[in-house]
């Protein structure tokens, strides 16, 4: 199977605007006083939405962050400890501190730079993101020249959800920039979940294109689900052996021409018969593929031409994390 159309992934909330035409395209809370002098015991709970908004807006400033955490610990946590859902509990834990998460890395290629990452996300993080994404799904767009709001199912068929910032999302973002040499989190685009059903795909494309004023220097694609279809999340209680697995949906690099050891076959489909060529990474839940999009001189690397291969059975859900060269400003 050979494809010739070039497309660029774009966030459904904001799309990159090229400076010049191109043919290669890469690829969204009044308070009344109580009659008595004492405030009701549940009053701190009324501030929870405001505190969450403050954390998202100003959480990067440590004095504000520390103040919010202190108020939560002193007033909110004793009141909400028992009724909190698993999702709320995880968010509260991550608001207090990001976990010390240490994934396993394997360098697959140095030219282009492709790194395979085991256990990039925990099971609880995966379940959290799958739940968080549900109300935000929209049809995935593609960019074709100046037409930045195109929808073409022949090129890309999937649903995308741009995630709102919250403590869990921000910890994952911090992990992603720390992985790349502790760069500022401001260089990340809003991260997005992408869901593929049977026959959904993304034809070969780059995440960079000529004329990008602030190019994407790198990409993470993290696998959140590869199962038989929609199901409720259970926050860490899944058993992969009991769940039907999806078929297809590999991340394919058709231009890869190197060799690799047989040990890579636990991550790579060594029996790939798609005809697309190159190398195909299996959608293994929790793991990620990271690659650099540019040469050191800033020009795009042709070796990272990649595709989301069609899903043959079940569904695949992934997480896109794009890093820009400079501070990212939604366009």
SSE layout:
Layout: E1 8-9, H1 43-46, H2 48-58, H3 62-80, H4 86-96, E2 104-110, E3 113-118, H5 123-133, E4 138-139, E5 142-144, E6 147-150, E7 156-157, E8 159-162, H6 167-179, E9 192-196, E10 201-205, E11 216-227, E12 247-248, E13 251-253, E14 279-281, E15 288-292, E16 306-308, E17 311-313, E18 315-324
Antiparallel strand pairs: 1-5, 2-3, 3-15, 4-8, 5-6, 7-10, 8-9, 9-18, 10-16, 11-15, 11-18, 12-17, 13-14, 13-16
Structural class: alpha+beta
CATH class category of the largest domain: Mainly Beta
Gyration radius from CA atoms, angstroms? 21 Å
- Counting H and I runs of at least 4 residues, what is the number of helices? 6
Poorly predicted regions are 1-7, 11-46
The CATH superfamily name of the largest domain is q2cbj1_9rhob like domain
The fraction of residues in strands falls at 15-25%
Mean pLDDT: 80
Report the CATH architecture of the largest domain: Sandwich
Shape: globular
Could you tell me the number of beta strands? 18
CATH topology of the largest domain: Jelly Rolls
Work out the count of structural domains: 2
> How are helices and strands ordered from N to C?
EHHHHEEHEEEEEHEEEEEEEEEE
Largest sheet: 8 strands, antiparallel
Give the helix level as a range of percent.
10-25%
Pfam families: 2OG-FeII_Oxy_3
Domain Fe2OG dioxygenase: 187-325
Protein name: Fe2OG dioxygenase domain-containing protein
Keywords: Dioxygenase, Iron, Metal-binding, Oxidoreductase
Description of the molecule:
The chain folds into two domains: 43-83, no CATH class; 101-324, q2cbj1_9rhob like domain (Jelly Rolls, Sandwich), CATH 2.60.120.620. It has helices spanning 43-46, 48-58, 62-80, 86-96, 123-133, 167-179, and strands spanning 8-9, 104-110, 113-118, 138-139, 142-144, 147-150, 156-157, 159-162, 192-196, 201-205, 216-227, 247-248, 251-253, 279-281, 288-292, 306-308, 311-313, 315-324. The longest helix has 19 residues, at 62-80. Helix 2 packs antiparallel against helix 3. The chain is built from six helices and 18 strands. It is globular and about 55 Å long. Strands 2-3-15-11-18-9-8-4 form an eight-stranded antiparallel beta sheet. Strands 7-10-16-13-14 form a five-stranded antiparallel beta sheet, with no helix packed on it. The protein has 331 residues and is of the alpha+beta class.
